[in-house]
Amino acid sequence: MSVGAIAPKAPGLDARTRLNVFLRRSRSLPPHLRTGVAVEPLVKEAGERVYFRIRPADRNRAAARERGTATVVLCVMAEPYAPGSLPFANSTLLYRELGVRTPRILEEAPELGVTALEDLGDELLQAVWAEGGAHVSVLYDEAVDIVARIQHEGARLAETPAASRFRAFSARLDAGLFLRELRFFTEHFLNGYAGLRLNGPALGELESLFEALAEEAAGGPPALAHRDFHSRNLIAGDGPVASGAPRVLWVIDHQDSRLGPRSYDLMSLVRDPYVATGDAARPPFREPDLVARFRDAAGVRGDPSELLAEFDAVALQRNLKALGTYGFQVSRRGNDVYRRYVAPTLRMVRENLERHSGRSDRRRLGLLLADVPTG
Prior knowledge:
By secondary structure, the chain is an alpha+beta fold. The protein folds into two domains: 13-117, Phosphorylase Kinase, domain 1; 125-368, Aminoglycoside phosphotransferase (APH), C-terminal lobe (Aminoglycoside 3'-phosphotransferase, Chain: A, domain 2). It is 45% helix and 11% strand. It contains twelve helices and nine strands. The protein has helices at residues 13-25, 61-67, 87-98, 125-131, 135-158, 175-193, 200-217, 264-270, 287-298, 304-331, 342-355, 360-368; strands spanning 38-42, 50-55, 72-76, 105-109, 114-117, 222-225, 234-238, 247-251, 258-261. It has a five-stranded antiparallel sheet with strand order 1-2-3-5-4. A two-stranded antiparallel sheet has the order 6-9. Strands 7-8 form a two-stranded antiparallel ribbon. The two termini are 33 Å apart.
């Protein structure tokens, strides 16, 4: 499993202590991954979890290669958790039921707050895009097919008694959640990051516009959604022999999966700031091509313009929500990694608003956000 190619934060003493206890007690890890190991701290961006890659000591590497277990990733939660309560464990079972590739959980120790995961490496789709190459477009086609599979197989599973085992089917991306995320944008991006303080009437108008946007974004036909489907949550790993493909996509960070608008995951993939950094950068695909592929793979019927209207409303809400996250990380957490994603995300927001400038609500929102700095 990859945890992202960013500078790791120093893990707390408690996390390292619990990790060492887990290694001593582990029932599943082979001996060369329990003693005399090298521990590499890793962090997955904004998450509260701390990750460590466990490597065998130099003297054990040859034996590790022979056994086919060279490394493992340990996820250390902020604190211990009750058995059976870990959302990631539940969603891992769900995605394997859906036939979507995701890292296996090798062992759980809830009393320590530690989970051992299959290590798929560090080749995020974002990194593959940065390197270039014709195979990038093939991987994006596969990503769209994965979105369609999640929706199609999710709909099938939802009609069976087995659905009650999975939390995703009882949680929703609804207008209330969307509105809370938009208010988070106001607090942590407009106020905290950009230093803008809207006066009473302007703030009231913004709240009214956000209420309408939240309702519109949540109004499309529902489907099972990953909820954070983008280039940093897709790993280009080795393909199974049966697949015939040398590189295939594996899905990570699916613990927040839930029912939501059918366009949500597709929009997260194609309006992804992580592959649009810089003022002139563009993602490695044509958006209309991926939307058309999704329509075919997911069996979307009806007027294409209806899906595109849903798509833009959801994209606008999602991109504003992302700016709230970036603002919080920069202004409250001192995590400047996110500053680079502000400009491309704002550009996507403004392009979205411009496409719909014939609507008075979009024009008003554009005017209220006109003075937001990009740096």
